[in-house]
C-alpha cells in the first residue's frame, strides 16, 4: 500500500520555521566534512550556580561532555574555539581550560570581541591562538562577589587560586611570570579595579596570544596543524 509522503515536507517546513526563529534565516549552511568541530564560548561562564537568566551564558556542564564526545570521535581531527566572554566562574573556566589543553585533537582558539578574566586561560589553552585586531583581553586578579570572611584561610584560598590560574597561563603561552604579574596589578587601565586591558596586537606583544588574525587565519592554521599531525 503506498505511503503518505506528506510528513516529510511538513518536517522540512518545521525545520525552516525553527531556523528562522533561532537563527534569523532559512538558509543554514551544512557541512558534510566532520574533520573540524567549532565550539563557541560566549557571554558569562556559568559554573556551580545559575547565572542571570537575562544574560548569555556558556555552561561548563555542556562544554565538558561535548569535548569528551569530540575526543572519542575518530573523524574529528581539530577544534576551533571561538571566544567572546566576559569571564565568570573561575573553577568552571579553569576546568574547561585544562580539558581543552589535555585533548588529543589539534586546537586553535580565536578571541573575537573579548576574552576577559577566566577567559584568558581559555584563550591560551589550545595549540595556537589568534586575536582579532579589535578584540580585548582583561587581565586582573581573582575577585569575588558577596560576603567574604576576613580570615587568613580565605586569603590563602584566593592566593592559591591565583597561583593555579597564573601557572596555567604561563604553561600554555609565551608570557613570563613577571610580565603576567605586572599586567594583573597595573593601576592605569581599569577605573575601579587593578589589571590591564590588552587590545589586539598588545596581547601578542606580551606573549599571551600567538598571532593577530580572524576566522580565515584560524582555520588555515588549524588545517596546517592537522596536516602536520597526520604526516
Question: What can you see in these coordinates?
Answer:
There is one protein chain. The chain is an alpha/beta fold. Helices cover 43% and strands 21% of the residues. It is built from 8 helices and 8 strands. Strands 2-1-3-4-5-8 form a 6-stranded parallel sheet. The radius of gyration is 20 Å and the shape is globular.
In the CATH scheme, the class would be: Alpha Beta
Secondary-structure element order, N to C = HEEHEHEHEEHHEHEH
Judged by helices, strands and strand pairing, the structural class is alpha/beta
CATH structural fold name: 2-enoyl-CoA Hydratase, Chain A, domain 1
| CATH H-level homologous superfamily name | 2-enoyl-CoA Hydratase, Chain A, domain 1
**DSSP helix fraction:** 40-55%
- Domains, number: 1
Task: Please give the count of helices.
Answer: 8
- The 3D shape can be described as globular
Q: Taking all residues together, what is the mean pLDDT?
A: 85
**Strand order, biggest sheet?**
2-1-3-4-5-8
The major beta sheet can be summarized as: 6 strands, parallel
CATH architecture: Alpha-Beta Complex
Beta fraction: 15-25%
Measured distance between first and last alpha carbons: 55 Å
Number of strands: 8
Radius of gyration from the alpha-carbon trace, in angstroms: 20 Å
> What are the low-pLDDT stretches, counting only 5+ consecutive residues below 50?
none
Question: TL;DR?
Answer:
Keywords: Hydrolase, Protease. This protein is 43% helix and 21% strand. With 231 residues, it is α/β, with parallel strands linked by helices.
List the helices and strands and how they pair.
Blueprint: H1 7-23, E1 36-46, E2 57-59, H2 60-72, E3 78-88, H3 90-102, E4 106-115, H4 119-124, E5 128-131, E6 136-139, H5 152-172, H6 177-184, E7 196-199, H7 201-205, E8 211-212, H8 215-230
Parallel strand pairs: 1-2, 1-3, 3-4, 4-5, 5-8
Antiparallel strand pairs: 6-7
Helix pairs in contact: 2-3
GO molecular function: peptidase activity
Organism: Intestinibacter bartlettii
InterPro entries: ClpP/TepA
